[in-house]
Amino acid sequence: xxxxxxxxxxxxxxxxxxxxxxxxxxxxxxxxxxxxxxxxxxxxxxxxxxxxxxxxxxxxxxxxxxxxxxxxxxxxxxxxxxxxxxxxxxxxxxxxxxxxxxxxxxxxxxxxxxxxxxxxxxxxxxxxxxxxxxxxxxxxxxxxxxxxxxxxxxxxxxxxxxxxxxxxxxxxxxxxxxxxxxxxxxxxxxxxxxxxxxxxxxxxxxxxxxxxxxxxxxxxxxxxxxxxxxxxxxxxxxxxxxxxxxxxxxxxxxxxxxxxxxxxxxxxxxxxxxxxxxxxxxxxxxxxxxxxxxxxxxxxxxxxxxxxxxxxxxxxxxxxxxxxxxxxxxxxxxxxxxxxxxxxxxxxxxxxxxxxxxxxxxxxxxxxxxxxxxxxxxxxxxxxxxxxxxxxxxxxx
Length: 397
Prior knowledge:
- By secondary structure, the chain is an alpha+beta fold.
- It has helices spanning 2-6, 42-55, 60-75, 86-94, 123-141, 158-165, 220-229, 249-255, 269-285, 323-335, 351-363, 370-383; strands at residues 19-20, 25-26, 39-40, 105-110, 113-117, 143-151, 170-175, 196-201, 208-213, 238-239, 245-246, 257-258, 307-314, 366-367, 391-392, 395-396.
- It has two domains: 2-93 and 343-396, Hypothetical Oxidoreductase Yiak, Chain: A, domain 1 (Orthogonal Bundle), CATH 1.10.1530.10; 111-217 and 259-319, Malate/L-lactate/L-sulpholactate dehydrogenase, NADPH binding domain (Ribosomal Protein S8, Chain: A, domain 1), CATH 3.30.1370.60.
- The chain is 37% helix and 16% strand.
- Strand 5, helix 5 and strand 6 form a beta-alpha-beta unit.
């Protein structure tokens, strides 16, 4: 799984590169490539994103929250939900489809639950508010569930679980999205990619379990990113407009019909379909937001999203002592298992991101694909902001 994910990044494939992450040892080494990639310092990417949001009327505070969200995604290797999403947000603000300065409000609450109205504000602003509220409640009651309605795309679900992990809590987050998943036996999309994330702290603050996955085989952003890079997508990711399995990323992105996690029915896709329904129940039905096919279509929207989010926090101190210690022990037992292929070590969820973050630190920044740099240059011209600066290891570019 890990080497396959590495190949999606705009950097050399690795065969040997030493990394240590809490007794998890992985070795890779960079291969030569014709053109050295451009590297952007995280601080510079952060600055550029803030400038862009401020240019379309967003407050500095909300712009900073969005910059934190997008750069965190890129830092962790989830490029489909980082800088890649910037223009989408800005366009929706420009069209009046997102109120960039709206503040979330609690509409109904108990000591351990809350319903929050996102007031059509930025998804990350609403997401941070709701997870912080859930953490505050769980610290007193042991567990808390907060749902949000009338919101927008909130980035990668794992970011919110990290907020809980950093407080020593278990975190869960999910969101519904525009219809992109084709239910088992259907021809057209009716459910979103509906991502789910679960985070559990370990003994070491830098070592934790963090699972983040879409209810489809991939998020639509992965197909979009593959289209920017060139090449085919694997079978089982998406269908075309005729309802047939498609490997051309451009045709697949145009059709926007993703298969559930597992793929077709014969391969167990009905399970991913069920997970998608589960997310709709927690994010749409419980919160009172739009759900399933009632959510606006993906791509060039003309109406507000009205998405729903769900956040669950569990305080381990309310349960049997030693939760973090047992979690670390379990992760290390799994990591030390004999791999089927010695070149592909056994990993736990969160290890890929840790390795990627170490590579970013080693590089001195993030490696964006050329098309992303080109898109950012056009964006800077359009908004009249300072272009994002990048460099090549041995000199400026």
